[in-house]
Sequence to fold (155 residues):
Amino acid sequence: MKKILVISSSPRKGGNSDTLCDEFIKGAIEAGHNAEKIFLKDHKIEYCRGCLACTDTGKCVIKDDMGALLDKMLSSDVFVMASPVYFYTMCAQMKTFIDRTIPAYREFKNRDIYIIITAEDTDIKMMKKTKLLIVLKLFMKICLKVLERELLFMV
Fold:
């Protein structure tokens, strides 16, 4: 049994991204795993200040909800990042969240990571070119040391 953390960055509860998170969780629970969803909109997460103090200490100097969210990520076997596509990139909530994961980059190894993205565009070629997908794949490969296994598109 795996411990799964789903991070929903949609600014709309019940929106397309959030609904897909719920379906992912439903499947995970049916498969016998434990799953929890974090809705970023419900948490206070300030912008990264770029001070890089966390590179020395492993902890961010900003006192908000992000420390607890990082602890949840680090205690999970699997995490899922979900974002709607806005102007061919991720929503601001996900970008802020990713920026604030710097203190824990080195500790995310050996985890399964899934990405859920939703968009109005039904052209798969355009979806593969979105800045969101490109940035998240680079984040996974360079920062988290995780390789992409499969892309699944639903239109």
Remarks:
- The radius of gyration is 15 Å.
- The longest helix spans residues 16-30.
- Helices lie at 16-30, 54-57, 66-74, 92-99, 124-128, 131-143.
- The mean pLDDT is 84.
